[in-house]
Design goal:
The complex is a heterodimer of chains A (896) and B (423). By secondary structure, chain A is of the alpha/beta class. Chain A folds into three domains: 196 residues, Rhomboid-like fold, CATH 1.20.1540; 291 residues, 3-Layer(aba) Sandwich (Aminopeptidase); 186 residues, no CATH class. Chain A contains 34 helices and 13 strands. Chain B has one domain. The chains are: A alpha/beta (896), B mainly alpha (423). Chain B: It comes from Aspergillus lucknowensis.
């Protein structure tokens, strides 16, 4: 100790405690371990360990004899465990060090547990006629104290306190009484019994039960326990014991010859040292295990989310919203107006009222109808304007005319506005006559109120896909040339509501659609307000994610969440509201669903309530969550809870990349100086490593552990592939819709051949193993990088891509030393398996599963790319595809 | 000059790549110009356009408080056609500037000053890349490309610094001082490089003439040249702007007092947004003192390798400058490959490169969440700028460690390749 002289030495030296703990012998360790395990087991609530293993006099029978042995190992709580461990560990250690591990095991699992128990049972049951259960290692503590006190008595018979001589053997009894008085719930009788047995042990009456030393020694010698078990204490006290001969220099160093040679060596430290000496495990096996664990943990995490413990109840965070606090007056005479408007519009459809729904395409919004809508709005006294737009995508032209009208706020300054959208066609292509009529009626109704502090804009796009996009782009002057600018504008949009009522009968529930483009979501407060107004004030049920029946069970919650994730992951627009999201305008669609007794007035009142709530807003919706997964109308998981799931999946790639990087940085040399006792070198690694050495480090100083990484080829290849992803991206977004099917099949073929081609080229140019590993490392590093960045933007997409790419962590070039047949078989199987998971094949499989044609999907995707600014394709072609190609090429290399 | 085929290939490839990017993605320059990572208030091309507009209409460019760059840029850019209508000439101009920078880098690399100077020759001096590779590292660095396409005026400063270095290693110490004067005139902070640069010039001078001229006289002479060049440039600027006080307060005052706290990848903006106004002056002083402190101390510690001091200082500036952008990082990464020989001694390459990669992907993502999606906040972006700075400073610290270790191994040949512990 080099502590300065001025400072007093520490009374307590932690390093000594540490070395003491590190030197604990085997049986003591086991006992401590078992006690801790039992304590941990007790933490769960299903199976009461105490009830199972404690010594209860009335429960004793032939079949429950095990209790005689288990009770010292079981404790009732943390403090009980802790105090008993503190008391018993030094005593046990002392006993074991003196008598050897085998003796300790024989005695403590046998007589030294059962005898005190037997005496206790006899007295408790037959003398006292009561039934107190006992548990705990204190029985051993007192027993050993008893035997120690006898020993002390032999050498040092009395304490002398003044004139009185107190025999030392009484000290355990004092302790017994003291513990009984000081600590609640201790069994005085139990302790007394164990002290009694301890006296007997100390006096040597129990020697009969100790197995003969000869036999123990024979067992020890036969099984070579000394050599095999760490921390084992020999029976043979003469040679190896604490009081015997100390290990001398003659003992073979490094061998586990003596139990005491493990001074200062913990099992943990030993494990780490073992790991360090085993680079094959550390660099080759461990990353695979870790990666797999990460993936499993990520998936399990996701499946835990619907549980009550992980999801939270929805709540309204923004107090200004005051949902459902005002009376909705939209009823009565407004219904007549609604009917009037509806019949006017119906009349223009040129069809007899009734079954419009059955006729799909006949109700396009003709100019006559547009004029009618405009004239109704003008008659109400609103400013009306129109906007023409045209989009071309995949050779299909989408065009139309938006009509919109603005109610200027009587109490506002036109700096803020709310949007109500009623598209002529719903997202599913149905005629939204009731919705449009309702919006017209509401426009007339709202105009008469004087309480609006924000402008209200009514937008009537001809369809739900492109109309609102054109309108909102033009509202922010971001429109393209084919879209007209808006002649009439208002202030910053605070929120949007889309009304869809395509049914021709009364409805049952409101279905709230909230997903935006690229997985962006509206503020959770808007959703909550809708649920609370519809459910709490109007008594209309709310549904989400097309889950018409939802009983709040785990399965239903999971299903809702997964549906939400799929929609979010694909990132397409799920309704007219989706276009608002990129401009940071929170919007939802209210759809009617089911047959019930709610009429258009009820929907109108809900919209009125919602508009009133939005009207109350003092600042943009910002309080509540923007990142959430909904399980149910009243439960959600926030980003902090669900994000680790995708991050774990992304992390698995990074781990593998780091491991491969480390692996490529070392030549064979560190592997060869492993400890001599480590056994033979792992074959695969030494193969690759020696090959590495042959190819690369020829110019290298053999003593130099670090070898140079040849990065040029891996970097160029991986970055080139990522850039090459732009080609399919361009093709799939810009050809005519008729070609999509053939293009998909062509890309399947290309995907099968390209890795083989790459593999051929790679092996042609004598790519080294190191470079192969580096290619994989760089590719996985980029994949992990992209996916973790993506997880913050679109969790679901990152999660899905991560899962689909998961095999890429594990595929690798099959080492050349495998027999050719096996190698070919394995690599062909691997390639086949990877091809099943290639982007176009997954697309085909998905289309087949959902029963939609590829052309529809890809046309929609291209439309999303062109009109909505959706970038799911970029992720697929520039993140997933390059990583996949690299993975497949690496498997392919083993073919050549 | 004999045409080196590899160099020509690298330079030509880089030029073609830049023009190709411009052709394929015509909206890319405007996108990059608007990014906070590329354009800072003192290098923004948009602000330059604003100044140019005012200048062409005979209004003081500093009216309106948007333009804070050196006035000499204005006549240069008014010669070019309007970048809004004809983006191609400007892009070509910037690409050529990049090639010029690369050429200077090649000169620096060919002089081999990085591996063996007057006072010091590394034991690993065979492990180097030749000029073409170093030019390639610079020209194909995504940060350089982004800076070039984003038309940040930091490129001019880089040119000044790189030519100062290339002149210094060739022994043309007066040219070197003139170039440094230009760089300092453009954006003040390169003046901090004066001490190591003058030492580099001195070393080269001594190496050539095999005599040691008087150090004090040498330094004073060169300092005078440096000051004169700055003064001359300021004099020309006066002809353009007229109002000297206005000029200084709008450019150098803006650099020094950091009034614009637009987010950037540095560490200043968030700190000065958060700080109470009464402490602002104090911390401004502390931050600047911190930045300047490195120049002297590194020069003393690494006296034998002045070029390495300059490289490390450029890295430190990229982290601790008031308005850093990826242009500064790209300048640092341009000089770093000269020290190929100490790469094997670095310890955290993978970690710090990964940190930089993560930061450069997550930075735009979080900025998007904050500004556009509205679902994040300023802390998201700031956290990522911290990671970026961490990654950069790790690389800087690691290279300095490696350089010191390299020096140490020269002095202690018996300890080569062995693990040592400093106590």
């Amino acid at each position: 100790m080099a502590s300065p002289a001025a400072l007093p030495p520490l009374p307590f030296n932690p390093s000594r405690v540490r070395s003491y703990l590190l030197r604990l012998p085997l049986f003591t360790r086991l006992a401590v371990l078992v006690i801790i395990v039992f304590w941990l087991l007790e933490l769960q609530t299903v199976w009461s360990v105490v009830q199972w293993g404690s010594l209860i006099p009335d429960e004793m029978g032939l079949s429950s004899m095990y209790r005689l042995n288990t009770y010292p190992l079981i404790h009732t709580g943390f403090f009980h465990t802790f105090i008993n461990l503190l008391a018993v560990t030094p005593l046990l250690e002392r006993f074991e060090a003196e008598h050897g591990t085998l003796t300790a095991i024989a005695l403590f699992t046998g007589p030294l547990s059962t005898f005190p128990a037997g005496i206790y049972l006899l007295i408790e049951k037959f003398v006292l006629h009561s039934n107190t259960a006992v548990v705990g290692a204190s029985v051993w503590a007192f027993l050993l104290l008893g035997s120690e006190s006898i020993r002390t008595f032999k050498s040092n018979p009395y304490f002398i306190l003044g004139k009185y001589k107190i025999p030392t053997w009484t000290s355990p009894l004092f302790a017994c009484v003291l513990v009984w008085i000081l600590v609640a719930n201790t069994s005085f009788l139990g302790h007394l019994c164990s002290v009694l047995i301890g006296y007997l042990l100390g006096l040597g009456y129990l020697k009969v039960f100790v197995p003969p030393e000869k036999i123990l020694r024979w067992i020890e010698g036969k099984l070579n326990l000394l050599g095999r078990l760490p921390h084992y204490v020999s029976v043979d006290q003469k040679t190896y014991g604490r009081y015997g001969v100390l290990p001398t220099a003659g003992a073979p160093a490094g061998e586990r010859g003596t139990p005491m040679s493990f001074l200062g060596d913990d099992q943990m430290a030993a494990a780490i040292r073992k790991l360090r000496n085993n680079p094959h495990f550390l660099f080759v096996r461990l990353p695979y295990i870790l990666s797999l664990l990460f993936i499993i943990a990520g998936v399990v995490w996701l499946f835990l989310l619907p549980l009550d413990e992980y999801s939270r109840k929805n709540y309204i965070s923004e107090n200004a919203l005051l949902p459902g606090q005002v009376h909705a007056y939209f009823s009565g005479s407004e219904q007549h107006i609604f009917r009037g408007y509806k019949s006017e519009l119906e009349g223009l459809l040129g069809t007899d009222s009734g079954e419009e729904v059955q006729r799909p395409k006949s109700e396009e919004r003709t100019p006559v109808i547009s004029d009618k809508i405009q004239s109704i709005l003008k008659a109400t006294g609103l400013k009306v304007a129109t906007q023409n737009y045209e989009y071309t995508s995949s050779g299909i032209t989408h065009q139309g005319e938006n009509i919109y009208a603005i109610i200027q706020a009587p109490r506002g300054d036109a700096t803020e506005a709310i949007v109500l959208v009623a598209a002529w066609e719903t997202v599913d292509g149905e005629l939204n006559l009731n919705g449009v009529t309702l919006a017209l009626t509401l426009a007339r109704y709202f105009k008469r109120w004087s309480l609006w502090s924000k402008d209200i804009i009514f937008v009537f796009p001809p369809d739900s896909k492109s109309g609102t996009q054109a309108w909102i782009d033009a509202y922010h002057d971001m429109q393209r040339a084919s879209v007209q600018p808006l002649p009439l504008k208002s202030g910053a949009l605070q929120g949007g509501l889309v009304i869809e009522y395509p049914l021709n009968h009364r409805f049952q529930n409101i279905h709230i659609v909230y997903d935006g483009v690229n997985g962006q979501l509206p503020n959770l407060d808007l959703f909550n307000t809708a649920v609370s107004i519809a459910g709490g004030q109007m008594g209309i049920g709310t549904r989400l994610q097309e889950m018409w029946e939802h009983d709040g069970s785990y399965e239903k919650r999971l299903q809702t969440m997964l549906r939400g994730m799929v929609k979010q992951g694909f990132g397409y627009a799920t309704g007219a509201h989706s276009s608002f999201m990129p401009y940071h305008i929170d919007a939802i669609t209210l759809q009617t669903q089911g047959i019930g007794w709610q009429d258009e007035m009820a929907l109108g009142r809900t919209v009125e309530g919602l508009t009133r709530s939005l009207n109350n807003l003092l600042e943009h919706l910002h309080q509540s969550f923007f990142f959430y997964l909904l399980m149910q109308t009243h439960r959600f998981v926030s980003i902090g809870t669900y994000l680790p799931s995708a991050m774990l999946i992304a992390g698995n790639f990074t781990i593998m990349a780091i491991a491969l990087w480390l692996r490529t940085g070392y030549s064979t040399n560190p592997f060869s100086d492993t400890a001599p006792g480590q056994g033979e070198k792992p074959d695969g690694m030494s193969q690759t490593a020696s090959k590495d050495a042959g190819n690369i480090s020829t110019t290298q100083n053999p003593s130099n552990k670090v070898i140079e990484r040849q990065l040029a080829l891996p970097l160029t290849l991986v970055i080139g592939l990522h850039l090459a992803g732009l080609i399919p991206l361009h093709i799939f977004n810009n050809t005519s819709h008729a070609n999509y099917t053939s293009a998909t099949y062509a890309s399947v073929v290309v995907n099968t051949l390209l890795p083989l081609l790459l593999a051929g080229v790679l092996s042609q140019y004598r790519t080294t193993i190191q470079q192969i590993h580096l290619i994989k490392s760089v590719s996985l590093l980029l994949l992990g990088l992209f996916l973790s960045a993506l997880a913050t933007l679109n969790f679901s997409l990152s999660f899905m891509i991560g899962l689909l790419c998961a095999p890429l962590s594990f595929v690798n070039r099959i080492t050349a030393d495998t027999t050719p047949i096996l190698r070919y078989a394995l690599s062909i199987a691997g390639l086949f398996f990877l091809n099943i998971l290639s982007p176009p094949v997954v697309l085909l499989a998905g289309c087949a599963y959902f029963g939609v044609s590829i052309e529809t999907v890809l046309t929609e995707a291209a439309f999303g790319w062109d009109v909505w600014g959706m970038w799911t394709q970029v992720i697929i072609w520039c993140v997933w595809w390059p990583a996949w190609i690299v993975g497949a090429a690496l498997v392919g290399v083993s073919l050549f | 000059m004999p045409v080196n085929r590899r160099k020509a290939a690298v330079l030509g490839g880089a030029l073609i790549l830049r023009l190709l990017l411009l052709l394929l993605f015509p909206s890319l320059p405007d996108l990059l110009t608007g990014r906070v990572e590329v354009s800072t208030p003192v290098t923004s091309f948009k602000r330059l356009q604003e100044g140019l507009f005012l200048y062409n209409r005979n209004v003081s460019p500093y009216d309106g408080g948007l333009f804070h760059q050196a006035p000499l840029l204005l006549p240069i850019f008014s010669l070019l056609p309007n970048a809004q209508e004809y983006p191609f000439p400007t892009a070509l101009f910037y690409s050529l500037l990049d090639l010029l920078n690369a050429n200077a880098l090649i000169t620096i690399s060919d002089s081999a000053q990085a591996v063996s100077g007057r006072l010091y020759a590394s034991i690993r001096k065979e492990i180097t890349w030749d000029g073409a590779v170093i030019a390639a590292w610079f020209l194909f660095n995504p940060f350089t490309i982004a800076t070039c396409l984003g038309r940040s005026t930091a490129v001019f400063t880089s040119t000044g610094i790189l030519y100062a270095l290339s002149a210094a290693v060739q022994g043309q110490s007066l040219n070197s001082m003139l170039a440094l004067g230009l760089a300092s005139y453009l954006s003040i902070y390169p003046a901090l490089l004066f001490i190591p640069l003058v030492l580099l010039c001195y070393d080269r001078q001594a190496q050539r003439s095999n005599t040691t001229p008087s150090t004090a006289l040498f330094v004073v002479k060169h300092f005078a040249v440096f000051l004169l060049s700055v003064a001359g440039l300021l004099g020309v600027s006066l002809l353009i702007v007229g109002d000297f006080a206005r000029l200084v307060s709008a450019t150098y005052g803006f650099h020094l007092l950091v009034p614009d706290l637009t987010p950037n990848i540095g560490l200043w903006w968030y700190f000065f947004i958060e700080i109470f106004d009464s402490f602002r002056d104090f911390f401004l002083g502390v931050f600047w003192l911190h930045l300047t402190a490195y120049a002297g101390s590194l020069t003393v510690r690494l006296r034998r390798q002045p070029l390495f001091v300059i490289t490390s200082l450029l890295g430190i500036f990229a982290v601790f400058k008031p308005y850093p952008s990826i242009a500064d990082a790209s300048l640092y990464f341009a000089l770093l490959p000269l020290y190929r020989h100490i790469f094997p001694l670095m310890r955290y390459t993978f970690f710090s490169v990964s940190a930089l990669l993560y930061a450069s992907l997550l930075g735009p993502a979080f900025y998007h969440l904050w500004i556009y999606a509205g679902s994040g906040n300023a802390n998201f972006f700031y956290a990522i700028t911290l990671v970026w700075s961490l990654g950069l400073s790790l690389i800087i610290a690691d290279t300095i460690f490696a350089a010191l270790r390299d020096e140490w191994e020269l002095e202690n040949p018996e300890k080569r390749g062995k693990t040592v512990k400093q106590v």
